[in-house]
Write a structure and sequence with these properties.
- Strand 1, helix 1 and strand 2 form a beta-alpha-beta unit.
- The chain has a 5-stranded mixed sheet, sandwiched between helices.
- 41% of the residues lie in helices and 14% in strands.
- It is globular and about 45 Å long.
- With 220 residues, it is α/β, with parallel strands linked by helices.
- It contains 7 helices and 5 strands; from the N terminus they run E-H-E-H-E-H-E-H-H-H-E-H.
């Protein structure tokens, strides 16, 4: 029997598959209803699969079961508090080191990266609606700031495409506001964690995550 012809380059997969590992349902919903809507187009299809895992090994086991060929595996973590125990810091460092090693493995083509919010993704949400964000002690502070500028917010919005509309419309404004924030107060543990931008109070690396996804190419 003749061997099947290998598909030509023009017929190979063009869709970008991204696994986004999140802390909770709120981040999953934003990825599902906002990022998938805003970052994908007919000419540049992107499918972001959000999952909640606390350990890198859980993500690896999921990837063994899932038939998709992920082009990037990204982790989105909330730092939660301005004071972390050394054990918590060490756990974050260990996770980052494990992910960095996975990305550097021989013959590894997919992209691996970690992105942080401080204290939580609600800071990113708030930037969709206001310019000024105050320093936060913890995740509760960030949610209160969000509700002050977007009274309709209920965790874990957006829960559907209708609720996602306002976030889709304002996402570009949120990116601009994030980059113009003039915050110089570094988190006490900032020098112990490598990040895409300085770890300050508050901060979000969502714009960096979005830009990263835009640059991902299919590996097959």
């Amino acid at each position: 029997m003749a061997r099947p012809k290998r598909p030509s380059k023009s017929l190979r997969r063009k869709k970008v598959n991204v696994l986004l590992v999140c802390d909770g349902q709120t981040e999953q919903n934003y990825a599902k209803f906002v990022l998938n809507e805003c970052l994908s187009s007919k000419n540049n299809p992107v499918v972001i699969t959000p999952k909640t895992f606390t350990l890198v090994d859980q993500a690896l086991r999921y990837m063994d079961r899932d038939p998709k060929d992920f082009d990037a595996v990204l982790f989105l973590r909330d730092l939660e508090n301005d004071q972390l125990s050394q054990t918590q810091i060490n756990n974050l460092k260990a996770e980052l080191e494990q992910i960095t090693k996975l990305g550097k493995k021989k013959k590894e083509k997919r992209k691996w990266a970690v992105f942080y919010n401080y204290p939580a993704i609600e800071i990113w949400y708030a930037l969709h609606f206001c310019d000024k964000i105050n320093a936060c002690r913890n995740a509760g502070d960030s949610e209160r700031q969000l509700k002050a500028v977007f009274s309709a917010y209920e965790k874990p919005m957006p829960r559907n495409k209708k609720e996602a509309e306002v976030f889709c419309i304002n996402m570009d404004d949120a990116i601009k506001r994030s980059k113009s924030l003039n915050i110089t107060a570094a988190l006490p543990y900032a020098n112990q964690l490598k990040s895409h931008k300085p770890l300050t109070n508050p901060m979000t690396e969502m714009p960096e995550l979005i830009e990263f996804i835009k640059k991902v190419k299919p590996i097959s």
